[in-house]
Every structure is written in C-alpha cells, then in structure tokens.
C-alpha cells in the first residue's frame, strides 16, 4: 500500500477522527460539553452541532457502553445510515441504537478485523473484556494503537508487541480516583509517579509517538473532585514517559487539533472546524491529595431543590424500592454476611437532611428506628443526585456519594478493613445488576421529541 499518510484529529476525551485517502472513520464520538452529566471538557470547547450534523463518516467505532464513550444524544447528530461498530456484550445497547434509527449497527468481535476503505480496524482485548476494548488502526502503512480507557494485561501486551512496530499509541494517561473520592477520609494519597506498569508496557511497545489520551475533562467548576480526582498532569506524563522512552515523542492533542502521520514525520494539520476551543488550551491538572472535601450538605447546595413529586419518588425508592432490590444482588466481600446497621443520609439543597437506618443481612434490608445501633456503615448523598440516578440513569462518578466518613467502634473498624467501598448498599441497589440506564433515559427523551 502506498504510504499516503494518515490524519488523526482529536474530538474530546477518547474521541478521534481518522482520515486516509478521503475515507473518514471516527471513534467514541462524544459531541457534548459537559458529557456524562458533569464531565466538563478540559481544556474547554464548544461544538457546532449544525456542522456536526453535516459530517459524514464511512464508519464509527465505539469501544464500550460507558456513557462517556457511547452517548445517544451525540449519536443523534449523525446520519442514520452511518455504519456503527460497537463493542458490547449486552444486546440491549444495540436495540437502543437501532430504535434511534440507525440502520447499520454491528457488533465487534475481538481480534476480528473490520475493513473500511484503506483502514483495517481490529478490536483488541482490554483488561476487562466484559466491558471495554482497545483498537488497532492500520492505514497508509501506519500502525496506531488506541488504548481508550483500558489497562493492558500481560497476555494482551505480548500479543500487541508482536503486532508492532507501532507508529503511535494513544495512551489513557490518568489514574482517575473515582473510588477514592467516595471515601476520602479512608483513602491513601496517590503515588507521586506514573504506575510502573505503564512505563514497562510503553517500553515494550516502543512507539514512535505517544499521545496522552482519554482524559480531557474535569467536573463542575466548584467541584472538589477537580483537585482530588486527577493526580497526573500532562507535564508529569511527558516528563516521565520522555525519560523512559528517549526515542519516542510525547505529543499532546487538545480537542480539535489534528496531525498528519507518515513514515518519516508527524506534522500539524488543519483542526476540526466544528470543535471550537474556548480560552486557554494549554491548561493542566492540579492534584492536592488530601485537601479537605466540603461537606455533603455544602455540595447539595449546588443542585436545584427537588419538586414534591421528585422528593416523593426518592422517598418511595428508599422505603420500598431499595429494600426490595437489596437482597437480589450480592456483595463482593463478606462484610455484609452478618447483620449490620446502615445509615443513609439524604441532603437537600438548603442543607436539610433526612436520615434513614436499615438493618442489613446477606439477603434483606429492613427499615429500623433512627436510634438502632451500632452503626456498621454510613452513606451520604445529595437527594438531587439520588433522583438523577433513578430518573436519568446518572452514573456513580457524578453522584457525590460519601461513604463511611466517620469513626466506628473498634470491632467494626477492624472488619471494615476487608470490605469493598463499592459494596455500599446504595451502590449495590442502584448499579449492581442494571445496564444502560443512562442511555435508556436518553432514548426516552429523544423519542419523546
């Protein structure tokens, strides 16, 4: 194949457009800011939605079903005849996309190539093959690995090394602390360096160019997560990877930026005109480790008060829905195999709090008196966020839950050392056996237009 070069453009987060010989394909097409409810583009951008509607792609590839990669509101901007290739083990997602009107919806199979004009795209196995995938993209003699959100296990790494040499690797450069911020008083500070596995794997892949990829967002401007969620800066990534791979070049691609990759060089190319930068684009993350988080009452004050009907929905779930659901899902650890008293605190927009206590065992959750003791688990959440999870399918990372932010009796503290934060009773009841709640809520809104 003639080496005509490959153009790679950044949309946002894990989104890219690849172009070769007038054929255009795209990956994880998110055209929203914020996306996934409270992920605000960092650096900031806006989108020309009319211009996006005019775009045509020969194929769109989606790595997995998480709402920051597969959003029906973004897909709604695409021409319905666009071939969509989605990696997902759940049939429900494909049905939702078809209900949106797409006529060419295909399920990706690991290691089975998809050919689109000069492109060969091969979905590769991610660390959690039940959830996500990676992409190997070949065109114009170039070989690019889009790691998306994944970590790479050793078996897959060995296979990828054999697929080399690699011209470019799009590497997910953040170790997002989405679990640690749920229980900040119990979490250890992030290590001051990149994970050792990253450096070893990048050395094994030996790419010519490394793009810090996948994470280009922050939460709401007021959010304490912005200094606790993202421990790695672009500067740190470039410094450590550059030192470890002296023959590679670390290239930052902000939203809209494009580059032209060929056998001899990487050159700037015309940016995507429908991704419009806003303000300074060379911003970087700031991590403050154990900076004290605000109270859940203060956080709740940033959200609108629930209407009477919305409040009733939340309380009905707490009194009926949650107890009915709790026994249907299993915990990952043994902490809840014996009876525990759980306190859930719901905070309103004016700081008011409603506290509910439950007696939990392995199979049931039963409301008990407000003074039932001893406490064995606590959960705090803004009531508006619980409603958003119930009505809009909002995901855990944007709900501002606070777990076990207290000191229990010594026996309970000792037992908690072996418990998993995501065994939280509310997390289990909301998320353990549900799929696509966010997309289902989007579909309802889109079809109701």
TrEMBL record:
InterPro entries in the record: RibonucZ/Hydroxyglut_hydro
Listed GO MF terms: hydrolase activity
SUPFAM superfamilies listed in its UniProt record: Metallo-hydrolase/oxidoreductase
Domain of life: Bacteria
Keyword annotations from UniProtKB, A to Z: Hydrolase
Entry protein name: MBL fold metallo-hydrolase
Organism of provenance: Telluria aromaticivorans
């Amino acid at each position: 194949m003639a080496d005509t070069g490959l153009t790679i453009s950044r949309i946002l987060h894990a989104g890219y457009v690849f172009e070769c010989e007038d054929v255009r394909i795209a990956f994880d097409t998110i055209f929203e800011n914020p996306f996934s409810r409270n992920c605000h583009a960092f650096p900031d951008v806006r989108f020309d939605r009319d211009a996006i509607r005019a775009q045509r792609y020969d194929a769109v590839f989606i790595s997995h079903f998480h709402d920051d990669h597969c959003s029906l509101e973004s897909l709604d901007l695409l021409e319905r005849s666009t071939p969509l290739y989605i990696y997902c083990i759940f049939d429900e997602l494909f049905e939702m996309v078809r209900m949106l009107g797409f006529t060419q919806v295909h399920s990706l199979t690991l290691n089975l190539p998809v050919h689109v004009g000069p492109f060969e795209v091969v979905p590769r196995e991610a660390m959690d093959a039940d959830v996500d995938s990676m992409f190997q993209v070949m065109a114009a003699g170039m070989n690019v690995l889009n790691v998306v959100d994944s970590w790479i296990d050793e078996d897959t790494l060995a296979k990828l090394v054999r697929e080399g040499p690699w011209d470019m690797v799009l590497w997910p450069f953040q170790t997002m602390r989405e679990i640690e911020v749920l229980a900040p008083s119990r979490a250890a500070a992030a290590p001051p360096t990149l994970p050792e596995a990253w450096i070893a794997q990048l050395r094994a892949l030996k790419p010519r160019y490394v793009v810090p990829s996948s994470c280009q967002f922050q939460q709401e401007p007021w959010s304490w997560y912005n200094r606790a969620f993202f421990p790695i800066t672009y500067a740190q990534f470039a410094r450590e990877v550059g030192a470890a791979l002296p023959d590679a070049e670390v290239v930052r691609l902000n939203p809209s930026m494009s580059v032209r990759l060929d056998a001899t060089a990487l050159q700037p190319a015309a940016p995507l005109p429908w991704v419009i930068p806003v303000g300074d684009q060379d911003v970087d993350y700031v991590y403050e480790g154990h900076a004290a988080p605000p109270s859940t009452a203060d956080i709740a004050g940033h959200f609108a008060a629930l209407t009477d009907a919305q409040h009733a929905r939340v309380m009905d779930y707490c009194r009926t829905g949650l107890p009915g659901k709790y026994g249907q899902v299993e915990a990952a650890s043994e902490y809840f195999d014996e009876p525990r008293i759980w306190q859930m605190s719901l905070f309103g927009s004016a700081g008011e709090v409603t506290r509910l206590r439950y007696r939990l065992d392995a199979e049931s959750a039963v409301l008990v008196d407000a003074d039932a003791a001893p406490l064995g688990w606590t959960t705090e959440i803004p009531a508006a966020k619980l409603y958003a999870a119930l009505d809009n399918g909002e995901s855990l990372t944007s709900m501002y839950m606070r777990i076990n932010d207290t000191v229990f009796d010594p026996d309970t503290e000792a037992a908690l050392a072996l418990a998993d934060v995501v065994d939280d009773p509310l997390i289990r009841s909301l998320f353990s056996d549900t799929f696509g709640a966010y997309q289902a809520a989007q579909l309802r809104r889109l079809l109701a237009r």
